[in-house]
TrEMBL record:
GO terms of molecular function: hydroxymethylpyrimidine kinase activity; phosphomethylpyrimidine kinase activity
Name of this protein: Hydroxymethylpyrimidine/phosphomethylpyrimidine kinase
EC number of the protein: 2.7.1.49, 2.7.4.7
Keyword vocabulary terms for this entry: Kinase, Thiamine biosynthesis, Transferase
Lineage: Bacteria, Bacillati, Bacillota, Bacilli, Lactobacillales
Length: 275
């Protein structure tokens, strides 16, 4: 007879996207496709679509604490991630809960600004992430502007990315992935700096598309899923890159702006054939 909670379970702690392409919605779709059962703590609710973020509100702290308690009381979470955390107060609530409960390794996606330009984390919130949350993370996954904010430096080339990654690692993150989607090069270069100080680059051709809403949520959720399934960090990151690449390459036509990714593509063989 199978044991209760033997199935790989994950947790995303983030904001919702009413448009379905980013945030908790992208996280749960990705986790499902990657073979994990996903649970969620909703920190904030956004009114959002592919054209931008029209409004958002962070939830009452009591309700957030209750969600953590509900999940802890029933499931065995093997890996978790954070996404949009809104402000310093909410970052602190998440920090307290992550110290209280064991949800496995944390992948910290330090979401700051949405593709359309909306600020999803206050300046104070950024400081609280730097001071309190980074040190709890097994992996942090900033994009280039987020890495610049965290490391307090300008990133113009690959050398700058490596310097920033080292600074972020010194803040207490065990492993660092700086995503290269925001660079201007024809090649996209993601940098991985591992716990043992070794590093490697994940290179891919830039896909000429505006349908890149939720790329960061998708790669971090694929990594969390693979960690929950038992992969080591390097294998989980390589899998995440393949997963997001397939999801970007095989565009689906949804919405008028920065459209969502194709979360089915990887399992449909989307890295080999256009589907
Ligand atoms: N146009 C593109 N072509 C190929 N790969 C891309 C493209 N844009 C992003 N990526 C890849 O997607 C992943 C996420 O990178 P990106 O820098 O876009 O994250 P992000 O800004 O956090 O995303 P978001 O804020 O939309 O969630 C990385 O692996 C990056 O290389
Ligand atoms: C709720 C939410 N989380 C993250 C992002 C960034 O992709 C977004 N646009 N919205």
């Amino acid at each position: 007879m199978s044991e209760i909670n033997s199935f790989p379970q994950t947790l995303t702690i983030a904001g919702t996207d009413s448009g379905g392409g980013a945030g908790i919605m992208a996280d749960m779709k990705t986790m499902q496709e990657c073979g994990a059962f996903s649970t969620a703590v909703i920190v904030a609710v956004t009114a959002q679509n592919t054209l931008g973020v029209q409004d958002f509100q962070a939830l009452d702290p009591k309700l957030i604490n209750e969600q953590f308690s509900s999940i802890n009381g029933d499931f065995k979470i093997r890996a978790c991630k954070t996404g949009m955390l809104a402000d310093a107060e909410h970052v602190s609530i998440v920090v307290d809960n992550l110290k209280k409960y064991d949800f496995g390794p944390l992948v910290l996606d330090p979401v700051m600004i949405a593709k359309g330009g909306a600020q999803l984390l206050s300046d104070e919130g950024i400081n609280t992430i730097k001071n309190d949350l980074v040190k709890l993370s097994e992996l942090i996954t900033p994009n280039i502007p987020e890495a610049e904010r965290l490391a307090d430096c300008e990133i113009k080339n690959k050398d700058d990315m490596l310097l920033a990654a080292k600074k972020i690692k010194e803040m207490g993150a065990k492993n660092v992935l700086i995503k290269g989607g925001h660079s201007e090069s024809l090649e996209v270069n993601d940098l991985v700096l591992l716990d043992d100080e070794s590093h490697f680059w994940m290179k891919s051709k830039r896909v000429d598309t505006i349908r890149t809403h939720g790329t960061g949520d998708t790669i971090s959720s694929a990594i969390v899923s693979r960690l929950a399934l038992g992969d080591d960090m390097k294998s989980a990151i390589l899998y995440g890159k393949d997963f997001v690449e397939a999801a970007i390459k095989n565009t689906i036509q949804v919405g008028h702006g920065h459209g969502p990714l194709n979360h089915w593509a990887y399992n449909a063989g989307g890295n080999n054939n256009e589907i």
